[in-house]
Design brief:
This protein is an alpha/beta fold and 251 residues long. It has eight helices and six strands; from the N terminus they run βααβαβαβααββαα. Bound molecules: farnesyl diphosphate.
């Protein structure tokens, strides 16, 4: 009989995962336009490829054990873009709901929307509400689509509703404000990723991101694949979150 040499088991690096997977990942999917420009393509093609990439990243999140994914798809400031591009982005959301809802539902994805619904057409509002209702009992991955979303507008909305509800000033604390945000019942994001090399948060999860870890990469969104996500998760896993405390207290 041939004896097996004492060689350590081969570890397939590409399948490795860090020990500490963030529960809630949020992504600013930036760089679709520059991705397209670099290839001599129209910006709309960048958004189309960005949408394709989103499907891949959703799958990777399920595989890696991320429980909540929040994506910044259209900000309150994006209305200032040329009308043709605004139309493309609105149509993408509509098309994603029309063509992907069955599969997302079957895969156990719960679709939610954060942002101002009332700024969208009644037709699109209906589609969003339908997608939310249809998937509300799914629990494999919660996907929060930030569409017509602005972090400051979200806080203004919350304050208006707090005043309307006649909450006594002494009852207002951080938990109460969190409860009035669009993300009321969800934990804050552990990790916020921004692609394309921009180093700012652009009015995204202004309140909820106070203690998030941030990860910036030069990669444009259409190229931010599963392996790039894995890299971000490894980096997150190496970070020490102190929440204002000392190392000793955390240990
Ligand atoms: C930023 O790239 C991207 C956006 C404003 C839109 C993001 C949308 C998608 C990825 C499609 C998925 C959408 C939905 C609704 C599910 P940019 O256009 O600002 O790129 P640039 O900074 O290079 O110009």
């Amino acid at each position: 009989m041939v004896s097996t040499p004492n060689v350590p088991e081969r570890v397939d690096k590409t399948d490795a995962l860090p020990p500490n997977i963030p529960k809630h990942v949020a992504i600013i999917m930036d760089g679709n336009g520059r991705w397209a420009k670099a290839r001599g393509l129209p910006r709309s093609e960048g958004h189309r490829q960005g949408t394709e990439n989103l499907r891949r990243i959703l799958r990777a999140c399920v595989e890696f054990g991320v429980e909540i994914l929040t994506i910044y798809a259209f900000s309150t400031e994006n209305w200032k873009r040329p009308p043709t591009e605004v139309r493309v982005l609105l149509r993408i959301l509509q098309r994603v709901i029309d063509t992907e809802l069955d599969e997302l539902d079957e895969e156990g994805v719960q679709l939610r929307h954060i942002g101002k619904l009332d700024g969208l057409s009644p037709f699109l509002q209906q589609k969003i509400i339908h997608a939310r209702e249809r998937t509300k009992n799914n629990d494999r991955l919660i996907v929060n689509v930030a569409f017509n979303y602005g972090g400051r507008a979200e806080i203004v909305d919350a304050v208006q509703r707090i005043v309307k509800d006649r909450v006594a000033p002494e009852d207002i604390d951080e938990d109460l404000i969190s409860h009035y945000l669009y993300t009321a019942d969800l934990p804050d994001p552990d990790l916020i990723i921004r692609t394309s090399g921009e180093l700012r948060i652009s009015n995204f999860l202004t309140w909820q991101g106070s203690y998030s870890e941030y990860y910036f990469t030069n990669t444009f969104w259409p190229d931010f694949d599963k392996e790039e996500l894995r890299k971000a998760l490894f980096e997150y896993s190496n970070r020490k979150r102190r929440y204002g405390m000392t190392d000793e207290q955390i240990e």
